Amino acid sequence: MGGKKWRWGVILDAGSSGTRLHIYRWKDPEKALKGASKHDLASLPKLMTEKIWTKKIRPGISTFGEKVDQVGPDHLQSLIDHALEIIPKDKIRDTPIFLMATAGVRLLPAVQQSALTREVCYYLRSNTQFSLPDCDMHIQVIKGETEGLYGWIASNYLLGGFDNPDKHQHGKGHHTYGFLDMGGASAQIAFAPNATEAEKHADDLKLLRLRTLDGSPVEYKVFTTTWLGFGVNQARESYVESLEDLYPSSSTELPDPCLPKGLRTTLDGVPVKTPKPKNTTLIGTGHFDECLKKTYPLLGKDKPCSDNPCLINGQHVPAIDFDVNHFIGVSEYWHTTHGVFGGKDDKAYDFTTYQKRVKDYCSQDWTSISKGLNPKKEHAAKNAQEACFKASWLINVLHDGIGVPRIGMEDLPQVNVSKGTQGALEHAKEKGFLEPFQAVDKIDGIEVSWTLGKMVLYAAGQVPPKSGDDGYPVGFGSNVVSGKAVPDDFQFAGSSWRPLGGDNGKHHNGTVGGDDDDWDLDAEDILDRARTRGGQMGFWVFLGLVGLVMWWFRKRERRMRVYSRVRGLTRRRRSHTGKYVPGGNRSPLTKLTTKLFGGRSSSGGGYERVMEEGELDRFELGDVASSSGSGEYSDEDSSSDHSRGSKAGSQFGRSSGLATPTATSGGGLGGGYGFETVTTVGGGMSALNRSGLVVRTDSRERLNLPLSGGVGGVTGRRSRAGSPTRMKSPLGGGISPLDDR
């Protein structure tokens, strides 16, 4: 199900009553371009989803306003777990995740809104690997206008208003559909006015920019607004408050014509059988006509209008031309017209038919209604007791508020269409989309949700712009007509058109740095090929280097030359320490080179000096005068201040520059070894050691004479071939040389 060609997106709709997970999938633009038809090239990317890819949990995140630290583990984690079961593991890092809160959170104080969004972003970043480069863009409380615009995109996307405008000519050159949405806390409207109204109210419109698969830009000018507090739940609260105002405060029972006859509930809508004396309850009367009259004032039609024309609550909306503006209603528009009142097979909304169904239902007593409920259906009783109020509210908003004609009672002018679009219109008419209003839940099996519109915008932003295009980013903002390329308030799609795995540049605005010459190659293919070629090339280069080293070291003299140089480096570094500990002071490099090149090593308590090539003359002892002739000596002061030579006036002859090792006291052969250097004094062959004792410095190996404690002459001359070993007496007194054995 994964495949290299697919891209994925996750969006969480954080509404007032709950949070719903939506997962979408679409082809990578580069893959979709291969073999695309002319129709596909002129269309937006094709998104798909499945029923199992959605999941809703209750309540909404607005209930975590005062306990934000719990919103992640107690609320979001179950949705994340569900998403991880759907999306392939190798796609998680490239999958964007969005959480967009709507009216429920918009009602919270600004401080709580900010705390919630920060906590959600932190939790998602800490506990998931989804792509979340920008918290402000991916986790936000969206405005009602934005929610409406996303819904408008989703509706027209599914109906084909974008891809086949010639097949959706509603008249007057108009081919898009209007969008109506109603949730628990707010209601939205979005539509593209006709040409006359668009010109008249240009400053009130949003400029929307999309991009088709061939990279062509498409623009739309859309009006969108929201009515906060006009969702069904908020409207119900306002309605109950109006009932309380109609009766004295001492009243404990309030007649409610919007409740089925005989149903008794608290002010919060909780059914009660035996009311408590001091608690106010609502008693259903089942008078639907009266219910319509009592809910009408909630529209606020008497509010002053500062910018004509206005619809609900004195809010400005350009005049709607229902000849060409055909609206799609989702959420509560669908549930209230197709829920307990039936109508699931209706192809179009008919006001007369719908109102008759509502009256018949609401005139029943609650006992009869409750007997027909399915006990296994979740929220069946709650939906039934609220159905009459919701129906009255929808009718008032739809017809008296927005002004949708009452089909079945009011005639509409006939749509003037050409013969070329007659077939398409007949197909649309079967779906009911040529009427002024149609409530829908799904189109072609896909749920109509504003979340789809957001993801369509994101996917369109991944399409590379056509050659020669100005690169104007995908997104929306104010409808400016000046020379500015991007409005100051432009909201970017949040995606870039670089291939998957490439440098996405600035995620927040859809622009990228660098060139895009590699667009013809799929990014994953490029990475796979690079890894394959890189791995193979690295392997062969490694083999070649190993072979070259082995060929060069095939001769022993080369190996020994390198060994000697490395050995010399380690000796120079070690000579500054002043002491030599068998085995312990040997560096890892020395041990390694000894094994690799076969050089001799010290063992036990022995010491070995390996002379570097080219240093023979440097270390040859000079001639010194003695009572018995010439001899050679190892003359070096043991002090660190006299590593080579000696102070003036205290040394005669030449210093060899070599240190003569002697056994330290107190340890014999088992003790430590140190460099004990001596200096010739007055031409003699003895000097003081560190303890002030006289020691001999003649080497038996050099002089070929037995060490006898006296001073013997030396005949002949030879280079130093090895270092003699001496031992201090364990008694700490006189010195007895160690016989050679």
TrEMBL record:
This is Golgi apyrase. The lineage of its organism: Eukaryota, Fungi, Dikarya, Ascomycota, Pezizomycotina. Its EC number is 3.6.1.5. The chain crosses the membrane at residues 537-553. One of its GO terms (molecular function) is apyrase activity. Belongs to the GDA1/CD39 NTPase family. Residues 623-632, 646-664 have a biased composition (Low complexity). Keywords: Hydrolase, Membrane, Transmembrane, Transmembrane helix. It is an enzyme of class 3 (hydrolase). CDD domains: ASKHA_NBD_YND1-like.
